């Protein structure tokens, strides 16, 4: 939902930060770490998770806790699920980026969503899989 935004920025979001332009919902604000503005479109899943709009000064996300204890719980869940990868909150960001790339092939949009200045940083999330290569080849016009 808010993949580009740090935990501290998510906690500060209020309903006045959720805007509508041309029938599209966006979340906007200032990234605490960089002091740069952001404006990210929200999809229908994000809107469902957010629930009904409340007062302008009410928080969009409540009950969000970031702690070493919670991070350890996430790691334990991953271990119990048989995952060999070290699971931590940043994995969600990485998962979003790789899924977005796999489904859309749109690196420039991903660069904007992730807040990367350099496209090379975004390209780290690009995963080349055989099905992607085959789909790309199938889209080419016949040469002969």
Notes on the protein architecture:
Strands 1-2-3 form a 3-stranded antiparallel sheet, with no helix packed on it. The protein starts with 6 loop residues before the first helix and ends in a 5-residue tail after the last helix. It has helices at residues 7-12, 44-50, 68-80, 89-104, 107-114, 119-123, 130-139, and strands at 18-21, 24-30, 37-41. It has 7 helices and 3 strands, in the order αβββαααααα. Strand 2 (24-30) and strand 3 form a beta hairpin. The protein folds into 2 domains: 1-63, no CATH class; 68-139, no CATH class. 45% of the residues lie in helices and 11% in strands. With 144 residues, it is mainly alpha-helical. It is globular, with a radius of gyration of 18 Å.
List the helices and strands and how they pair.
Elements lengths: L6 H6 L5 E4 L2 E7 L6 E5 L2 H7 L17 H13 L8 H16 L2 H8 L4 H5 L6 H10 L5
Antiparallel strand pairs: 1-2, 2-3
Q: Please, how many helices?
A: 7
Range of strand content: 5-15%
Strand order in the largest sheet = 1-2-3
Q: Uncertain regions: pLDDT < 50 for 5+ in a row?
A: none
Query: What integer value in Å does the Rg equal?
Result: 18 Å
End-to-end separation: 46 Å
Structural class: mainly alpha
Instruction: Please tell me the overall pLDDT.
Output: 81
Give the proportion of residues in helices: 40-55%
Number of strands: 3
Order of helices and strands: HEEEHHHHHH
Number of domains in the coordinates?
A: 2
Q: What summary fits the major beta sheet?
A: 3 strands, antiparallel
Could you say which overall geometry the principal axes of the C-alpha atoms support? globular
């Amino acid at each position: 939902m808010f993949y580009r935004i740090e935990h501290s920025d998510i906690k500060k979001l209020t309903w006045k930060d959720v805007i509508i332009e041309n029938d599209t919902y966006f979340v906007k604000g200032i990234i605490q770490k960089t002091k740069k503005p952001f404006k990210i479109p929200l999809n229908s899943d994000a809107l469902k998770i957010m629930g009904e709009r409340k007062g302008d000064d009410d928080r969009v996300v409540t009950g969000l806790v970031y702690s070493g204890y919670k991070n350890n719980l996430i790691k334990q869940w991953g271990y119990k699920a048989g995952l060999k990868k070290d699971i931590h909150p940043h994995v969600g960001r990485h998962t979003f980026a790789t899924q977005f790339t796999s489904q859309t092939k749109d690196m420039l949009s991903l660069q904007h969503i992730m807040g990367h200045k350099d496209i090379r940083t975004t390209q780290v999330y690009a995963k080349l899989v055989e099905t992607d290569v085959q789909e790309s080849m199938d889209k080419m016009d016949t040469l002969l």
